[in-house]
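chain below, 110 aa
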Amino acid sequence: MKSRHVPVYNLGGHINLGANFKSAREQVHRLLIDCPATTPLGHDVMQALCAIDRLIDRLDGEAAKLIPADRDPRRLAGSIYYGQECLRWHEYDPRELTTDVFAPWIAERW
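prediction:
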């Protein structure tokens, strides 16, 4: 019997997790300012960044499975885990969800 793929998070969960990963990645990356990549700590920072990037890439793929392209007219799917925009909850008309899966969210620059 073939197992059915069960999403790890719903769209809102991915949006929250994406914002946290963007912030965490930025904080870890800042360590390189004071700690050159050639030091043991710098090496660990680089490994951590690579691990975060692999995880983000995998989670982005999981999120993409939840988002039909025809219901992302503002092309916000790429902003969940990548880019300089964060998605913030705002008031919306529930009828908008029929055409825009991101209706409850608005993109803002960090």
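The two ends are 46 Å apart (CA to CA). The chain has a mean pLDDT of 92.
thats it, cya
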